[in-house]
Write the C-alpha cells for this entry.
Amino acid sequence: MRRISSGMNDTDVQSRLRIQEFKLNKANNQLGSQRRIQELRDDPIAAGHLVRYQSFEGRMKQFEANAQTLTERFTVREGYINDSLQIMHRIRELAVQGAHGTYTAEDLHNMAGEVDQLLREIIQNANAVDQDGNALFAGTNTKATAFEVEMGNVEGSGVPMIAQVVYNGNVGTNNVEVDEGQYLEVNNSGNRTFWAEAQMLTSGRDATQWQAQEDGIISVDGKEISVSRGDNVYALISKINNSDAAVKASLDPLTQGIHLQTTDARQLWLSDVRGTVLTDLGVISGAEQRPPYNAANSARVSGGSLFDSVIALRDAMLRGDHEAIGGRVLGSLDAGMSNLVTRLSENGSNYERAMLNVTRNSQTALNVTKMISSEGDLDFTKAVTDMKMLDYVHQASLSVAGKMYSSTLLNYMR
C-alpha cells in the first residue's frame, strides 16, 4: 500500500526520469562505441561467446605472425644456401680442370688461389646473420659465430691459409607454434647444411663385456636416450637405433667397439647428459670437452664438412696432386653439393608449409572477426531509431513532470 503525500509525485517522477536517463545513456554509449554489449549482464551468453571468439582471434593472429616470421627467415636462408651452391659449382669446375693432368704445377697453384677465395666466401655465407643480428646457421646458439676459422701453414703456400673450420653452434631446434597445438620444427644447424659426408665414429675399446652400472642419459644428435642399469652394449645399440636420432649404431667386427654413423650428411653430436656411458665405451673423451669435438683419442672418426672438401682441393692443387683431385676430393665435393641441394629443398618445403599456415590463419582470423561482429557489434539503424524514441520519451516525461509539480494533497481531497 502506497502512502499519498505531497512528495509522492516528485519521487515517482524523479525515479522514472532516472530510468529514462539510464536507458538514454546506455544507448549513447552503444552508439559511441558501436558495441551492443557494454556490460556482461547485458547479454551473458553472447558475452561469453564474445570473450572466447576474441581470445581465439588473438591466437590466430599470433600464429599468423609466427608463420610469417618463419617465411622471412627461410627466404633469407635460401638466398645464402643457393649462393653457396653456385660457388660450389665454380669450385667443382676448377676441380675437374685440375684433374685433367694437362695443367702445370704453376697453373694448379694459381687455381688454388681462386679456390681459397671461394672458400672464404662460403664461410662468409655460413656465418651470415639476419636483420636482427641472429646467426642463421648456428642452431639455437644464435648470438655466436656459427663457424670459426683456424689459420695455419699449408704446404706449397708461403703465407698462412685457412687450415680448419670449426662449428661453434649447436644442434638445437626451435618448435614454432603455427596453429592450435601444431608446431613447425626449425633446424638451423650449420653442421647439417654445410656438411659433405656422413660422419662415422668407431670406438677402439672392446664393448662386448660392457654393462651399465647405473641409470644414465646420453645425447645422440640432440636426442636424449635413457640407459638403464644392467643394459649391455646390444641393448644400447637397440635404443639408439629405435630413437629419433639420425644415427645408426652397430658393433664393429674388428675392434668389437661400438660403431656410430649418421644417416645423412651431418656431424655427430654425442655427450653424456647423466652418467658416463659414452665415456666408458671409449666414444667420447668425457664431459670436460663439449661436442662435437669431444671424440675419444682411441676412436676413429671419418666424414668431413664442405669446408674440409674445399680445403683438401686447395691443398692438392698447391701440391700439384692431380690424382687426389680427380679421386677422393672430387667425390667429396659432389657429396657436399648434393647435400646443399637437399638442404635447399628442405628449406623450400618448410617455406611452403609456413606460407600455407599464413594463408589459413589469415582466413580463419577473418572468419572469427565476422563471428565477433555478429555477437557484439551494434545494429546501427536500430540503435539510432531506439535512440530517437528514447529521447522523445524523455522529453515527454520532462514536459509531463513540469505540469505535475504544481499538484498538492488538496487535489486528492476534492
Observations:
- The longest strand covers residues 161-167.
